[in-house]
Amino acid sequence: MSVVRAAVAILQRPDGQVLLAERPVGKPWEGWWEFPGGKIEAGETPFHALVRELREELGVEVEKATPWMLRRFDYPDRKVELHFFIVRDWQHEPRSCEGQQLSWQHPTALTVGPMLPANEPILAALSLPSIYAISNAAELGEKAFLNRLQSALDQGLRLLQLREKHLSADGLQRLAEQVLKMTQPYQARVLLNGDVDTARALGFSGVHFSAASLMALSERPQQMLCAASCHDARELAHAQSLALDFVVLSPVLPTLSHPDAPVLGWDGFADLAHESSLPVYALGGMQPEYLEQAWQQGAHGIAMMRGAWG
């Protein structure tokens, strides 16, 4: 069975809404909804196919598109390889040029459907914010960390990893209770860097696995957000095989704690991220101003410890 390669666009407004299109009458899967895009022709790069398809389908001119994920899916009659791009800037208001219905939708509150099966996991990924903060109470002190967490929540932080290996079980529980109480009014999701049972018992949204824990994992926990730390293609492939929700890939740049350690660099990061079927956060030496560069290299966003807390 041949593989159909396609470029797919996530046209994203600043408020997070994305554009969906209904497949018109007469096409396979008519009446189903999908993200705009189309086949990559012979001799085309995925990006050039994206630009052409959006011009033909929607009458828009792409100004800024960043690579995001590569997903493969087997339909009964064909295999598809979907090159997803996030498109944040374009000229002209999208319009129906091929008889398709269009609708701006928020990924977590769709009012249209059904979605094509290959596109369903994309909606969950789109609900992840661009910034993933990692706690640093060990260095800042708990009081200072909690003060800075409050400030970050007020400024929009919505995804946090609690990673405090120095704490006893009782100390972790006390800090977790304070963090979860603070984040709840903001609907921020908090993952525990630790074991699944502790994360469930303390009421975390999910769990973040170390690379070693990831490689020992044979099945992902259900009904919780699952992420992992990866450093190479082998770890990334295992995270993909488990269908985790996202990964962090590191170290991209030198860090204060390991200034002389080998790093991926942006090129090495991009080589791995461009082949990923999961959202990938860049970690290691990150600062908020690196977000745009991370997007250009295929990242979903950036993960920060010191950079998250000023």
Automatic annotation (TrEMBL):
Its EC number is 3.6.1.55. One of its GO terms (molecular function) is hydrolase activity. Pfam families: NUDIX (PF00293), TMP-TENI (PF02581). It catalyses: 8-oxo-dGTP + H2O = 8-oxo-dGMP + diphosphate + H(+); 8-oxo-GTP + H2O = 8-oxo-GMP + diphosphate + H(+). It is an enzyme of class 3 (hydrolase). Residues 2-130 form the Nudix hydrolase domain. InterPro entries: Aldolase_TIM, Mutator_MutT, MutT-like, Nudix_hydrolase, NUDIX_hydrolase-like_dom_sf, NUDIX_hydrolase_CS, NUDIX_hydrolase_dom, ThiamineP_synth_sf. Belongs to the Nudix hydrolase family. This is 8-oxo-dGTP diphosphatase. It comes from Methylobacillus methanolivorans.
